[in-house]
Write a structure and sequence with these properties.
Elements: E1 5-9, H1 39-47, E2 52-56, H2 62-70, E3 75-77, H3 80-84, H4 88-93, H5 108-115, H6 119-126
Parallel strand pairs: 1-2, 2-3
């Protein structure tokens, strides 16, 4: 079976493991193991070019994207930064990263208005404290 890419999604691509979840699962999750190297680097090493490695998590700037690529990623995915600033890509492309919005407004109605998203989506975004930065 051919794969186009393998996605390595972390809370922050710089860390060697995802942050702990607050959700409760049926089986306990091992919380003491920390790999010696980044999962991005390890996947890239094991895959050895047979498939692309895509990294995501904490990528907010072009420098972040380049950092993930230096760790071994072939592609990067940007999620939260684009939610916060839907114009993220055009700002990066035009080398205007200083104008990228760093967080969402404090007020729920302002968030819905700024992002043109329904209130239910705003509730979801805010249900994970700290996941989306706020101004």
């Amino acid at each position: 079976m051919d794969l186009d890419y393998i996605s390595v999604s972390l809370d922050d691509y710089r860390r060697s493991r995802p942050a702990g979840e607050t959700r409760v699962y049926d089986s306990p999750v091992e919380k003491t193991y920390t790999p010696a190297r980044s999962p991005i680097t390890e996947f890239a090493r094991v895959i050895a070019g047979r498939s692309a490695v895509m990294a995501s998590g904490g990528i907010k700037t072009c420098i972040d994207a380049e950092g993930a690529i230096k760790m071994g990623a072939d592609l990067v995915a940007v999620g939260r930064a684009v939610v916060v600033d839907p114009e993220w890509l055009s700002k990066v492309r035009s080398k205007n990263e200083t104008s990228i919005l760093a967080g969402l407004p404090k007020n729920k109605l302002e968030i819905a208005k700024a992002l043109s998203i329904p209130p239910r989506m705003v509730e979801y975004l805010l249900s994970r404290p700290g996941w989306i930065p706020r101004l």
